[in-house]
Amino acid sequence: MKGPGVFLSQFIGDGAPFNTLAGLAGWASGIGFRGVMVPTHDARILDVDAVADSPALADELRGLLAHHGLVLSELAAHRFGWLLAHHPAYAVAAQRMAPQGCSDRATWACARLRQVARACRALGVSCCAVFSGALLWPYIHPWPLRDEGLITEGFAELGRRWRPIVDAFDEAGVDLCIEPHPGCDVHDGVTFERFRTALGEHPRIKLLYDPSHMVLQGMDYLGFIDVYAPLIAAFHVKDAEFRASARSGAFGGFQAWIDRPGRYRSPGDGAIDFRAVFSRLAQHGYGGWATLEWECCLKRAQDCAAEGAAFIARHMIAVAEHDFDASLSRRTLSHEEIRRALGLAT
């Protein structure tokens, strides 16, 4: 496992040092991070088109990070993935994530994702984090009753829209790490399996594991690792808690995050057993990055980050190279010796 890493998206701001990649790199390095997951929706931080078309610029960007002792761990294109396939109910919200006057957001998002694939290749990045899209999310609860074939066709359409993008990432030698996330059609293990099936079990479709989203859905976040370990290629370190309430439940009552029974917290401030999470990932041989994501409803971003780097470093496990009892000699016994060891010798 590699780390500590930090997802820069929620730390971007209008003032220095948070408005440039150089400024963010100096800040992240200064508080103990060793890798950065970089979002692709903000050209101030990463000009995807320029990097995709200029090997020299890609080298310059890697050099900038290296100067601060950092590695570019992954790129992230969550917004483009969501825009690729969203229900018309989200038209107003989607306008905030696409260029003004964009009449076909799905086509625009497809083009952006193809460029992200090229940027990943230029930068030598092996995986990119994305959302699946949200064609079906308005139908998440089966009332009114869903008509036959609705869910099947929704996932088939996701497969059609994603297939050329998956091919572009495959050509670039980059894995697509789908983050199961409420608000998206892929939000748990079952929906991830449906998504993979729609794409013919394509080997480039991997998982970004974030246990916080599983806490808010009442899932077994440790068992999830056991089931999907071979497909987990990225990991967000983000905490969550669910405080049972007599007035509200998993859907949150349309309340602000701070008032919801289920809410995101900074690592160590919620209910997730991160000792067990890191142990389980290490047990299954996870070799990707452990990356802090800040979405806490209480603690400010800079404090979460400063604490988060040390938190991740403290929980990372260097897997033992040999068994603890390897110093005791072992050998293959003959059948006769085995019988004698069992007290069964004649």
Task: Summarize the entry for a quick read.
With 346 residues, the chain is α/β, with parallel strands linked by helices. It has helices at residues 21-30, 48-53, 55-67, 78-84, 91-95, 105-123, 150-172, 189-198, 211-215, 221-228, 274-283, 301-315, 335-341; strands spanning 2-7, 35-39, 71-76, 127-130, 175-178, 205-209, 232-237, 239-242, 262-265, 289-292.
**What is the distance, rounded to the nearest whole angstrom, between the alpha carbons of the first and last residues?**
52 Å
Strand line-up across the major sheet: 1-2-3-4-5-6-7-10
- The DSSP helix count reads 13
Total separate domains: 1
The rough form would be described as globular
Q: Into which percent range does the helicity of residues fall?
A: 25-40%
Q: In this structure, how is the largest beta sheet organized?
A: 8 strands, parallel, barrel
CATH superfamily: Divalent-metal-dependent TIM barrel enzymes
Residue runs with pLDDT of under 50 for 5 or more positions: none
Strand content: 5-15%
CATH architecture: Alpha-Beta Barrel
Over all CA atoms, what is the radius of gyration? 23 Å
Overall residue-averaged pLDDT value: 96
